[in-house]
Amino acid sequence: MAHLEGIRFIAFDLDGTLIDSVPDLADATDKAVQALGFPPVTVEQVTTWIGNGADILISRALSRSQDIDPDLDPALHQEARQLFNRFYEEGGHKQSKLYPGVKETLAAFHQANVPMAIVTNKPSQFVPHLLEQHGIADYFVDVIGGDTFLLKKPDPFALHWLMEKHQLAASEILMVGDSRNDILAGKAATCYVVGLTYGYNYGQPISASDPDIVLDHFSLLADVVKLGS
Question: Binding of Mg(2+): at which residues (predicted)?
Answer without folding.
Answer: 13, 15, 178
